[in-house]
Design brief:
The structure is a homodimer of 122-residue chains. Chain A is mainly alpha-helical and 122 residues long. Chain A is 52% helix and 7% strand. Chain A contains seven helices and two strands. The structure holds a DNA duplex (30 and 30 nucleotides).
DNA sequence: TAATTAAACTTGCATTTTGCAAGTTTAATA
DNA sequence: TATTAAACTTGCAAAATGCAAGTTTAATTA
């Protein structure tokens, strides 16, 4: 079994740097977005996100996010249902600030954005 | 001359994913933190941050952040002074939310954190 | 009950990104 | 004029990511 990073090494004591050591990568906040805003909870739901995460990275991130206490799961090994922990839910202001920035600076398809906006409760 | 990524490719139209395509890496928000909260503005000041960014990555990020319009610079090629653009300043709520999460979940050295808190205006 | 499906990984390998050490260029300073 | 130092640049090793394929075993279907 591949072993996930067990102890995140913080680069400094700065709270910003420490938080980025947890979720400052390309995929963690995408998974958390899926849980927080898009009602997703299973491996395959995450796998089918538009952004196209690959299976090994998805697995690594689910293990890591579980280890650091941002998510947990119920169900059998073959039917895991992931949910955000209380700690994970505390990232909501972060995602909200990020999406507000995104709405301001990325126009893209207006109709599509309207749908996203609705689903993200914005 | 090494060419920096010229057009960021967005993984999707999601505003969260798009924003993460800009600053969802290990170093960009550290540099922006240095400018926003720690009064830093030059290559060497960024280089001397506690987190220890390496020279090539720092250079890449400064080029990229300039290209995407989050920062810009004045001064000669040998004495560049970087500042946040209006767009870059719009990331302040993101950094604030991240640091609030960090303060809640990373204790570390109390005295040191108090100093950081002061310097971060929190 | 046996065969099939599919969800959740796992593995191997190529590509990309990052880290580290050292070197280069040229303004500013002594 | 010589030295310093700020801002890169380069080369190479290590780590992270991407991609395709394979594995395991619950759940479903025939």
């Amino acid at each position: 079994m591949k072993k996930a990073k067990e102890n995140i090494e913080n680069r400094s004591v700065c709270p910003i740097a420490c938080t980025l050591d947890l979720v400052g990568d390309k995929w963690s906040l995408i998974i958390i977005r899926d849980m927080m805003y898009l009602g997703k909870s299973t491996y395959n739901e995450f796998l089918n996100s538009k952004e196209g995460i690959s299976t090994n990275i998805l697995n690594d991130r689910l293990v890591m996010l579980t280890e650091v206490g941002l998510i947990n799961y119920t169900g059998t090994a073959k039917r895991k249902k992931y949910t955000l922990t209380k700690k994970g839910l505390k990232l909501k202001p972060v995602l909200e600030a990020i999406s507000l920035f995104g709405f301001k600076y990325f126009t893209g398809d207006k109709e599509q954005l309207k749908n996203i906006k609705r689903v993200l409760n914005l």
